[in-house]
Write a structure and sequence with these properties.
Layout lengths: L6 E2 L4 H9 L15 E7 L14 E6 L2 E7 L3 H7 L7 E5 L5 H4 L2 H10 L5 E5 L3 H11 L1 H4 L17 E5 L8 E5 L4 E6 L10 H5 L3 E7 L2 E5 L7 H6 L5 E7 L1 H9 L3 H13 L4 H11 L4 E7 L9 H10 L4 E3 L4 E2 L1
Parallel strand pairs: 4-5, 5-6, 6-7, 11-12, 12-13, 13-14
Antiparallel strand pairs: 1-8, 2-3, 2-15, 3-4, 8-9, 9-10, 10-11
Helix pairs in contact: 9-10, 11-12
């Protein structure tokens, strides 16, 4: 596997359309159609509140036998097992941002990869990812020194089993963060975080959306974001837009149950720093994507409930297929 250091990839909205249309890694004319090209929604529930019927966000991209993980919320290992995959199979891991529902499962994922004697893996994510990965491995040194079989074959050195790679603090244009013979990944900073300028959080906390180009199919994964021209540009011409979604009516009802002093902050976060259905439809139509999959559902408690609070607003603005994802589906 070949990885490269993050570098700026100068693409405007128009240039992204050219990239999608011109011969490239994602051009089916340049490569035989893969036997499998699927996006697996392993976990679809927005957090940090745990949900009994939905695991937290985790997604696996499967391209002709190669697997890549996008976000690793709680229960990720069980979801990986339920999808009949193995932690050792992932060639790279991508974290969209450092909220618990997107990174809480990273430690268990890395430790089980080590236990399975998997090849070393790189975790790409916001600033702090390199320190997080190093901390996970350092903190589990005692696990390395406590083998199950004292006389069994030695396992790989834990400290060498994974590395972290921090994405840049600014992305005025999409940044190419990963490339191998199967996929190419671009990233932009989105609008999930809106901290006070100059605050410690504003200096370091970032949330990213990803564009993944494969032979025959292009995916865009929003992660968590509000309305973002940069994400709309990133999604230009994508075959599949995988977007987070909130139910604004349910959010308004939930706000009324909170203390008055907390209501406005809660509403701003849920309705401005996440995606409402009509905004998703507008984005999908403007970007010219072919299909939309909705995930990271909030509140998203019951997978069997009426999907229209999440889908109706999208369908009103976007005329292509719209799917409300469930755990362990493939799209």
């Amino acid at each position: 596997m070949k990885t490269i250091r993050p570098r700026k990839f100068a693409l405007t909205l128009a240039a992204l359309a050219v990239v999608h249309a011109s011969p490239s890694l994602a051009d089916p004319a340049k490569a035989a159609p893969p036997s499998v090209n699927l996006w697996h929604t392993l976990g679809t529930g927005g957090g940090p509140v745990l949900k009994p019927r939905r695991a937290q966000p985790a997604n696996a991209l499967e391209v002709n036998g190669s697997l890549y993980l996008f976000d690793a919320g709680e229960a990720v290992l069980r979801q990986v097992l339920a999808a009949r995959q193995q932690a050792s199979q992932y060639r790279a891991v991508f974290i969209s941002h450092h909220h618990l529902d997107h990174n809480a499962g990273l430690a268990e994922l890395l430790m089980y990869r080590w236990n399975q004697q998997a090849d070393p893996v790189t975790v790409y994510g916001p600033p702090g990812t390199a320190d997080m990965v190093k901390g996970i491995l350092t903190g589990n040194r005692i696990t390395e020194l406590s083998p199950v079989l004292g006389d069994g074959p030695p396992k790989p050195v834990l400290a060498n089993s994974a590395t972290g790679s921090d994405l840049p603090l600014t992305t005025p244009t999409p940044v190419e963060v990963y490339k191998d013979e199967t996929i190419r990944v671009l990233a932009v900073i989105n609008t999930h975080f809106n901290f006070t300028p100059g605050s410690p959080e504003a200096k370091i906390a970032r949330s990213y959306s990803y564009r993944i180009e494969t032979p025959g199919r292009v995916y865009v994964y929003t992660g968590d974001t509000g309305i973002s021209p940069a994400v709309t540009a990133l999604a230009t011409g994508a075959d599949l837009l995988i977007s987070e979604v909130v139910d604004p009516v349910a959010i308004q009802a939930a706000a009324k149950r909170k203390p008055p002093a907390d209501q406005q902050a809660y509403l701003f976060h849920q309705l401005q720093e996440h995606m409402q259905p009509d905004a998703i439809g507008t984005m999908a139509a403007a970007a010219g994507v072919k299909e939309v999959v909705l995930t990271h559902l909030v509140p998203g408690q019951d997978p069997s409930a009426d999907p229209s609070p999440y889908t109706a607003g999208v369908i009103a603005k976007f005329k292509g297929p719209v799917t409300l994802a469930k755990d362990l589906e493939a799209h």
